Amino acid sequence: MSKIYTALGLMSGTSLDGVDAAVIMTDGEQVQSFGPSVTVPYTNAQRQTLTDATLAALTWNFIGPAPNIFAEAEDALDAAHRTAIQTLDAGVVDIIGYHGQTVLHRPDRLKTLQLGRGQGLSDEFGCPIVFDFRSEDVASGGQGAPLAPIYHKALVDHADLPGVTAVLNLGGVGNVSLVTANDLLASDTGPANGPLDSFLDSWGISMDRDGDVSRDGMPDFFKIERWLRADFFNRAWPKSADRYDFSVLDDLSDVAIGDGAATLCAFTALSAARTIRQMGVALDRIIVCGGGRRNPTIMTMLQMELDCPVQPAETVGWDSDAIEAQAFGYLAVRVMRGLPNSFPTTTGVPTPTVGGRIVYPA
Ligand SMILES: Nc1ncnc2c1ncn2[C@@H]1O[C@H](COP(=O)(O)OP(=O)(O)OP(=O)(O)O)[C@@H](O)[C@H]1O
Ligand SMILES: CC(=O)N[C@H]1[C@@H]2OC[C@@H](O2)[C@@H](O)[C@@H]1O[C@H](C)C(=O)O
Q: Transmembrane segments in this chain: where (predicted)?
């Protein structure tokens, strides 16, 4: 191993549930060990500001001056991330990877935007911060996501898993990494909990906790067949998605809550299975991380669709809620070392690309 860094990763995902923070000891190639991790939920006011910024971004669409609310959203993000670092209480770290909040992702227009400022936190915590991980990949013609695959490969190597492993993350959006002895293939898979959360929000419920809402519902496979005709599902991989790319909720306006939730769980499972099949690699196991692994409706439907074991990340000893934050600590070390984080087979970028910007304490 080269020099081992103590890296602190920070991730705020598309579901806007809060900030994940985690420490990882790594040289940016292998995982040496894991440190503490924490998830700090956004306050209602912070979540509202971030939601408003995301909706303003959709209207803005990278045309003209950026919406004023972005500055307010960056204040909220920096404050929430500061709280997460303080709550983690990890002591001195060598480097921080600060993903920020994606408010708009348009790789077809060579644009992606993650809000959050690196410099303030770097000054405050006295260490280098890597941020803006995706822009260079997108500007070079890549999809800008997923970036976690090179970390998923390090996790699979660390766990010494034999054969071919898929790591499927079911957050707001889904993404999958296929780790073989010689290759790393990856793609977003489509919607995960994003449309399900939005649908339940219209019923005043925050999530399909433990599958409670979807459990007794009846999926409408005709609707799903129609949704799966969307351009995203027919594009070649690697591909990436924005949280708001899948506007299916109008089709569920007069559907009972249980049936709607079951339909969206099935949509998640079928779209993930479809992308995995498109990738054409025989798998020995699928390890599921992200909040969707806690939804038995989605997990059961995935297992019905795929002919290898589908297992939650805990079954191989991973702290699933920390994986994305660990990933951005790991990726930050790679940026520091000039190692690439994205590849033609993970984001479609023409050549392996480092990405990320580093700031140092003033
Ligand atoms: N106990 C649970 N049962 C069912 N679903 C759950 C449970 N806990 C979390 N979820 C779902 O998982 C979502 C959050 O997942 P996660 O934290 O992996 O997403 P994220 O990291 O914000 O998104 P992304 O990976 O797209 O950036 C919640 O919005 C909810 O829908
Ligand atoms: C643009 C963006 O922020 N994409 C996220 C999102 O959330 C899940 C999926 O879509 C994923 O590809 C990506 O995040 C993970 C951490 C990644 O880059 O690997």
A: none
CATH number of 5-146+320-359: 3.30.420.40
Report the alpha-carbon distance of residue 240 to residue 237 in Å, rounded: 8
Confidence of residue 338 (pLDDT cuts 50, 70, 90): very high
- Across the chain, what does the average pLDDT equal? 96
For the chain, give every residue range classified as CATH 3.30.420.40.
Answer: 5-146+320-359, 160-316
The answer to whether 290 touches 169, Cβ cutoff 8 Å, is: yes
Instruction: Encode pLDDT of 63-95 as tens digits.
Output: 999 999 999 999 999 999 999 999 999 999 999
CA distances from 175 to 92, 171, 193, 290 (A): 32, 8, 12, 10
Give me ligand 1 centre to Cα 171, in Å: 5
Average pLDDT, integer, range 253-281: 97
Beta pairing partners, 232: none
User: How does DSSP assign 263-286, residue by residue?
Assistant: HHHHHHHHHHHHHHHHHT---SEE
Q: Is 193 in the pocket of ligand 1 (CB under 6 A)?
A: yes
Asked if CATH classification 3.30.420.40 holds for the domain at 160-316, the reply, yes or no, is: yes
CA 203 to chain centroid? 25
Question: Is 13 annotated as belonging to a binding site?
Answer: yes
Question: Is the CB–ligand 1 distance for residue 172 below 6 Å?
Answer: yes
pLDDT given for residue 104 in this prediction:
95
Please determine, for residue 1, whether its predicted confidence score (pLDDT) is greater than 80. Answer: no
pLDDT at 186: 98
Is 281 annotated in some ligand binding site?
no
Examine the predicted complex and report whether its ipTM is higher than 0.90. yes
